[in-house]
Amino acid sequence: IILFIYAFTVCDCANNFISNALGSHMVLQRSPQRANIWGWTQAKSTVNVTFNGKIYSTDANTDGSWSVLLDSTNAGGPYTISAKSGSGETASLVDVLFGDVFVCGGQSNMQMTVHQVFNASDEIAKANNYPNIRIFTVGTSTSSDTPLVEFKTILQPWSVASAATVGLGDWSSFSAACWFFGRDLYDEIKVPIGLFSDNWGGTPVQAWSSADALKRCPTNYERPIKNDYITGPNDPSQLWNAMIIPILPMTISGALWYQGEANAYQPDYYACAFPAMIEDWRAKWGGNTSPQFTFMFVQLAPWLSTDDSGETLTRLAQMYATRLPFVGVATAMDWGDPASPYNNIHPRYKQIVGYRLHLVGLGLHYGKAVQYKGPEATDWSIVSHSPVASVSVTFDPSSLGSGLEFVSKSCDAGVPIEQCGWFDIGGSDGKWVNATASIKADSIVIHATLGASVTVTGVRYAWGNYPVATLYNKDGLPALPFVFPNPIKPTLI
Predict the structure, then answer these.
(1) Are 117 and 354 in contact (CB under 8 A)?
(2) Rounded to whole angstroms, what are the CA distances from 306 to 51, 114, 300, 419, 478?
(3) Which pLDDT tens digit goes with each residue over 216-270?
(4) Where are the alpha helices (DSSP H) in 349-407?
């Protein structure tokens, strides 16, 4: 009951002595990084923070802000952290654990909760087995045209994971993709995990980007093209101001991102804006966070649409972020849910999304010897034009895992055949022809019969709102969609 009373309270008070992004039951970042504690008091007032038998002293700045970096602390706990100011303010944070902290951002597919997934009752009950995972959910009631240093709306303060806290209800708490990532990760590394759910359905990348990031891409795109998938705040930087700035002082391990549907008609812009946002977040994140912190994102799942190009091009545009260091992708392109009661744009297979994200985390962040990449095409060559057109496609060796294999699949029930996509070869007559494919060692050869005197001009895989994923590696990860030549032209300034 107390949880729900707190959850929907909007605070119009002055900034807190200790930031409301912190709290009892939280997880702070473990060693070798140093956790940051911060807040506000009277200007120039002395603040003493006591932790693990040591007192950390600092004087507040002229604006009243203060912060201290704790000594690096190994995973474990629980600890108590207390603070006292020269102005007489006191605070105590209890049951604090040290482990790894991840921020989970994006739009509705990240906001979608454990309560909404397949087998929800069992998944929620299992949360009782994970008291060393701690969760926090930012509210979706505040956007701002100006920077905020504190959250004005908190849906769920730091809480011990349990059936009660993970299974609050639809679109509330807790984020399913975020939870399954953290749960699967905890099963592997066995250290406390802090999960910070910070997302808002129907929001474009522009809303989550600072003015500095937006300046790197053409300003005539700062406002997204209106479409059916924009239902939340969409003005530039509104959610950066209200939902990202307040957590920037926190030391974190990395971030997860599931967003892009609201930018489905701006692929060239997204190929610029998404990497720009990541680089800007990294440059501005404080505490003792690595300037190259791990960033993991979900390549968009299928959904029904009258436009066959918007989704496919956005999936291709998302991949431009992987050109940055320590950025990894977990694709959801092979798990559509046309019968989802939450609209088919919201698949209920979030366990798979979380599992694939945790593989990316294990391989990219923790350096574990796991296969976390699906086959990623890197180049193509024309073998023949006629009588049968043949194209060879090669892959990044690190994405092949135990080798390539085909899986028998068909277009999902209820999905119009014209919205499904397999292999196609493009011809000089401007037409794309459905093709077959065969595996040849670490590459594939794609075949199709084109018209008389028609020459090959391109090749593509999984072009469609509902890709029919038939190519995987033997580790169970699907090949990523590809189009050659790549039609994406990032709109860089």
Answers:
(1) no
(2) 58, 29, 17, 8, 25
(3) 998 777 777 777 778 888 899 999 999 999 999 999 999 999 999 999 989 999 9
(4) 350-360
